[in-house]
Amino acid sequence: MFGGKKPEVLVAGAGPVGQLAALALAKHGVRVEIVDTGIWACSHSYALALHRESLSLLDHFGLRDAALRKACPVHTMGLYDESGRRARIALSAEDNPRDCMAVLRQDAIEALFEKALEDAGVKIGWRRELVDLATGADHVEAKVNRLERDSRGYVVARTEWVVGATEKFEVPFVVGADGYESETRRSLGVEFDETGEAEYFAIFEFQTDADLGSEMRVCFVGDTVNVLWPLPGGGCRWSFQLPESASREPRRDKDRLLLSGGLEHSKLVDDAHLKQFLEERAPWFSGSVGHIAWRMVARFERRLAKSFGQHRIWLAGDAAHTTGPVGVQSMNAGLFEAWDLARMIKRSLHEGAPLCDIASASARWQAEWQRLHGIGGGLKAGPQTDPWVAEHAAALLSCFPAHGKRLDEIAAQVNLSF
Ligand SMILES: Cc1cc2nc3c(=O)[nH]c(=O)nc-3n(C[C@H](O)[C@H](O)[C@H](O)COP(=O)(O)OP(=O)(O)OC[C@H]3O[C@@H](n4cnc5c(N)ncnc54)[C@H](O)[C@@H]3O)c2cc1C
After folding, report:
1. Candidates 35, 37, 43, 46: which one to mutate for ligand 1, based on the most atoms within 8 Å of Cβ?
2. Is any atom of ligand 1 closer than 6 Å to the C-beta of 11?
């Protein structure tokens, strides 16, 4: 690759954020190597929506239409409780099908990016794990293990991955988009502090005859936040927040969800629980429950890195922050962090811009994430705010599908502000 020249940037992690970083770097004419421990991109929907602004970001790569072809458009956000809709927020103009939030499986997003990378001449190095980083004066030394299959087995065949070889890179920059358990963050010695309690959600994707239109529905019942998404192809995803006590100390309670002995994940996503969740939290949902294609309990932590990097090593995406799932903020803000980083790195490499420019941009993202985590006060109600909305102001912060200025605009529609 690169006509024998060395790469200028090593991207660790080929999730959506790492892939977008590599794509943006390649677009800027930067020689980029991208590696991932995995065997291939993720095979599930996980984070399932591109914010309206992220869709605009795809315009830089000519990918908007390809994304829209696989997506279900969402134009509004409905705020519900068990009795029905309490407020409605416009996310985009309803008469323009190209201007929307795009509900799209995460594996479809990753497949789109991987193909665009291939077209740009960048091949993802799967089964390659970043294991160590050391910073020199004008470069970073990175060790990457190449993982190979080691088949062993007598009575029961078993295949394990073993280290085949260790490669050494000497690159001007490293982008750590290596997710929640980031080795890049660990190498930097950056703390990843909890900013709030972890939340558990029972997630179900199923076919339904409900007409969900182009609305995402966020439903507040008791202390729980629940979200309903229309999916491409006619199905839907319901994510039900589990009561805090279901994930904590065992205790007796009449609620069937509060299981003795702590979390028993498989029981929480059985058919009986789905029925119970729908009856208790969304009696207004009159759609059928057809084939359930996916169900699981997922744990979402709220964490924020003390810093997003230093010198020549920078973090983006889940490597730097995690939050609740409803507003899909972690992946979408991560895409913009990657975009900004790529631009800054290109300016440093090719135009001689100082490293402190990257530090300033990353500090701005760290500050934005403090805001997204409600550090410093969170969203506040005013005299015009509907009392029901005011009651849910704190929880709404991570539910709005936006960040930055756009988040302020969306919150203002229900008279909330920072
Ligand atoms: C079950 C589940 C459900 C989810 N649902 C939602 C949801 O509803 N809404 C929402 O907003 N988010 C959801 N998420 C979270 C969402 O998937 C993440 O926010 C998103 O993937 C972050 O993208 P990323 O590129 O930053 O990190 P990741 O997608 O985590 O990608 C990191 C990549 O780095 C690789 N890697 C790790 N360590 C190394 C290493 N040392 N060397 C090389 N590569 C490495 C990993 O293999 C991985 O491919 C869900 C996640 C899960 C698991």
Report:
1. 46
2. no
Q: How far is the CA of 317 from the centre of ligand 1 (A)?
A: 8
- pLDDT-based confidence at 267, cuts 50/70/90? confident
- Residue 37 beta carbon below 6 angstroms from any ligand 1 atom: yes
CB 314, CB 171: distance < 8 Å: no
What are the helix (H) ranges across 296-379? 329-351, 355-372
Token pair listed for 168: 């050494």
- Domain co-membership, 274 together with 362: no
178 lines ligand 1 (CB under 6 A): yes
Q: How far apart are CA 58 and CA 102, in angstroms?
A: 12
| CA nearest to 24, candidates 417, 325, 341 | 341
Q: From the CA of 161, how far away is ligand 1's center (Å)?
A: 21
Cα(318) to centroid(ligand 1), Å: 6
pLDDT per residue as tens digits for the range 328-372: 999 999 999 999 999 999 999 999 999 999 999 999 999 999 999
Tell me: do 126 and 250 sit in the same domain. Answer: no
Residue-wise pLDDT tens digits, 238-264:
999 998 655 554 443 333 333 333 455
- Same domain, yes or no, for 258 and 282? yes
Centre of ligand 1 from the C-alpha of residue 266, in Å:
22
- Whether ligand 1 lies within 6 angstroms of the CB of 114 is answered as no
Share of the chain above pLDDT 70, in %: 90
43 has a pLDDT exceeding 80: no
Long-range Cβ contacts of 56-59 (<8 Å, 24+ apart): 57/20, 57/335, 57/336, 57/339
Name the domain count of the chain: 3
Write out the residue range of the structural domain in which residue 412 sits: 380-417
**322 in the same domain as 278:** no
**CB of 16 shorter than 6 A to ligand 1:** yes
Mean pLDDT value across residues 45-69: 95
**Nearest protein CA to atom 4 of ligand 1, as residue:** 46
Domain boundary among the residues 261, 276, 301 is at 301
Please choose from 23, 315, 318 the residue to mutate so as to test ligand 1's pocket, defined by most ligand atoms within 8 A of CB: 318
Q: Nearest residue CA, atom 51 of ligand 1?
A: 46
Are residue 242 and residue 122 in the same domain, yes or no?
A: no
Shared domain for 251 and 267, answered yes or no, is: yes
Residue 367 sits in a domain whose CATH number is: 3.50.50.60
Q: How far is CA 204 from CA 32, 235, 237, 270, 271, in A?
A: 38, 10, 6, 10, 10
Residues 54 and 75 in one domain: no
